[in-house]
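Schema walkthrough. Field components (list of strings):
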Amino acid sequence: MIEVTELCRTFSKGKRLRRTEHPTVTALDRVSFSVPTGETHGILGPNGAGKTTLIKILSTMLVPTSGRAVVAGHDVVSQTDVVRRRIGMVFGGDRGLYDRISARQNLAFWATLYRVDPRRVDARAAMLLERVGLTDRADEPVERFSRGMRQRLHLARGLVGDPSVLFLDEPTVGMDPVAAREFRSLVGELRAEGRTILLTTHDMGEAEALCDRVTLVDHGRVLVTENTADVGRTLGEPQGIDIVLAPHQSETLESLSKLPEVRSVERLSGAHAFRVHTEPPASVETVMRWLVDHGVLSLQVRPPTLEEVYVRLIGKRGLTV
Amino acid sequence: MSFAELPTTYTLRSWTVGWVIRLGSQALFFVLLGRLTGATGRLEYMLVGNSVAVVAMETMFVSATAVTERFQGTFPLLVVSPANMGLVYLGRGLHWPASGLASSFAVLSALSLVFSSPWHWWQVVLALPLLVLVAVSTYCYACLIAALSLRNVKFRTLYPETGALLLTAFCGVNVSTSFWPEPLHWLAQLLPLTHGLEAVRHLLNGGAASSVLLQAGLEIGCAALWAGLTLLLFERIVAAGRRDGSLGFS
Ligand SMILES: Nc1ncnc2c1ncn2[C@@H]1O[C@H](COP(=O)(O)OP(=O)(O)OP(=O)(O)O)[C@@H](O)[C@H]1O
Ligand SMILES: [Mg+2]
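Field assembly_structure (string):
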């Protein structure tokens, strides 16, 4: 459904004052990955990694410097028109809506541009409003909407053309947790319908909840593409052991953290609950045995969270840009 | 959509009270100037010219509508939609020529009445289709200027001001096009308004139907020319934006 091969994009830095000198920024550097039909795929990476640039190219907003990208079976450069009819685009933030007219009018306008049969425009708008839960406020000017409502309208707008591929660029940025959760459940529904979704986000929990697979990018390069649940294992990231200690076991905790195989012990939110990170990964067993020997009864091995993997992978480079 | 936005700009009262009076008084000013100069026919000449020019002034506002698209972040979304950008813009601001037409007709009728002009009321009514033509052609021209403003948002007020100035100065509003040196005279033949206005003058002065129709035809030609240029320019703006990455959304 999405097929990206050796995609590169450079931007010339600053204004082109002299034509001879062209310092450039490489936003995408030979990016390759593919997303099969029906998959929800996450693009993760730090600020400036090239996520938005990638989405812009795939949605025909930007042309690549080199390489090839195929969306819904069509080349994004040579078959722009066909691609445009098959995709929907949603980005986070406050912009992208006509503020002075109502939600319904916004959708009707876009439905017309997406060549919805004029007799069915009203019905389509009403259906989408219902779907994103905005029917009650449908006739109010959009400028009165909250961030969460705007974003849901944005999603409805992205769906007017009934796209088979949907691009979501940081769709929940700046939303409160409840609004973001509602939004996520909407995306979950779209995924269940079999649409192919490409999502960028800085929220690892969101990626874990929504994405079948993720691609980590940094400095315009792909670090890894993997099933969301397996990223850590593939990268040989250490597993964690969640334990609950009895109240009298504080000494156990102390000696535990002094074990050479234990990298760190993290306090979890429950009372006396901790997460033990081991190093190297294979030492999990040793530490487990030690824990059992010391009377720790509640323990569970769990794979590293996406956030842990992300921080270990990207965090290594520190704050340098 | 276009007409859905109209009430957000005008209410019926603000339209009548605001624009018609504002543009009407501008026309009135020139008419009185015409009377001051005293020459026969001068008053009528300026009356017709300035009344018809009202529609040109109003269509120019489409430029402002277009520029908000840049600020609202909807421009890149239009680019990735299956619709043709130029056609979308031509359709987006259609309420401007419509309201401009109404303003222009109102001003022409009112001033004709006040200055008890030599033509009959039915001639003014007959001028309505010609005003429609002028509304359309100046609108196509205004859309081109809107495209320029979109490309270069810094000059978003300069472009429409200049565009409007060209029309009022060289298209025979206050002085005949032949007043200007040859090159400008020829430029005026390509601008919208010139021929439409000429057609209205012929009609009101009881000229031959054929000369009215000829001028009307030329005005249609101008409309097509400017519409074509607008579509072309939009295509180029989008292509350039996709190449240099200036289509952003944050
Ligand atoms: N139009 C442009 N002109 C010049 N440089 C650009 C342009 N767009 C992006 N860049 C550069 O390309 C790189 C990638 O930017 P991009 O917006 O794709 O990152 P991102 O991963 O979306 O970051 P964020 O998480 O902050 O949204 C950055 O270094 C950025 O400065
Ligand atoms: Mg981004």
